[in-house]
Design goal:
Elements lengths: L6 H7 L13 E4 L6 H7 L4 H8 L12 E4 L11 H11 L10 E4 L6 E4 H18 L15 H12 L19 E3 L3 H10 L5 E2 L9 E4 L3
Antiparallel strand pairs: 1-2, 3-4, 5-7, 6-7
Bound molecules: zinc ion.
The site of zinc ion has 4 residues, from strand 5.
């Protein structure tokens, strides 16, 4: 009997960079060359299983360029409405995280664990639970560099800004993201919630008035 090589599984597991679908409701995604079910799922904050189930295909289904997939929001797919749901999403898309520095704590995001100052992370987690319980809205950073940044990452963002390709960014050594006390929120709805309940957790809008997405922790 010929040995069966799990090519489909290997291909489906290779995560590629895929642009996230617009937030709000399920959208139709046209598969691009090189994309995989797991890559599309990860880019949209979904587990591969959830995206597969939503489309009625197996988790190791090989997507074909040009085919259409329906991409639900994590909430529609039954993910992200509870702490365990989002934690499962993070676990599926990243290896177990190790904090870049011992004074950091982790917070869940669609891109896996991100980091903040340990006090800021604990306060964020409490605020996030309250948001989920009260509003049914998850709170998470807009991208992998939207919470704690190393000075190297800040430097790269500053260079991008200077080149005209990136959003405004402070030079390394001058961003509260390097202190792990700021988050760039993913949606204006999240900002509304931080405005309403953040003060109870030390989170609020304390700096960068021209950036609605940038909120900070004022200390515990
Ligand atoms: Zn920011």
């Amino acid at each position: 009997m010929q040995a069966r090589i799990p090519i489909a599984v290997a291909a489906a597991s290779a995560a590629l960079a895929v642009a996230p679908a617009a937030a709000g409701a399920a959208v139709t995604h046209t598969v691009q060359p090189g994309e995989t079910l797991s890559g599309i799922a990860a880019a949209n904050g979904l587990t591969t299983d959830a995206l597969a189930a939503w489309n009625g295909v197996a988790s190791d289904h090989l997507v074909i360029a040009g085919a259409s997939l329906s991409v639900p929001t994590p909430e529609e797919a039954g993910l992200g409405t509870t702490a365990t749901g989002t934690a499962a999403t993070g676990a599926a898309t990243t290896a177990p995280g190790t904090a870049p520095a011992p004074w950091l704590g982790s917070i869940p995001s669609p891109w896996g664990d991100l980091y903040l100052d340990a006090g800021a992370a604990a306060a964020w987690s409490s605020m996030r639970q309250a948001s989920l319980a009260t509003y049914g809205v998850d709170l998470y950073p807009a991208g992998p560099l939207s919470a704690y940044r190393t000075s190297g990452q800040q430097g790269e963002m500053y260079e991008l800004y200077l080149s005209g390709a990136g959003a405004p960014a402070n030079p390394p050594g001058y961003s509260s993201h390097e202190l792990g006390v700021s988050v760039d929120l993913a949606t204006p709805a999240m900002r509304d919630i931080v405005d309403q309940i953040g003060w109870q957790y030390g989170w609020g809008k304390f700096e960068a008035p021209e950036e609605w997405w940038h909120v900070s922790w004022g200390g515990g």
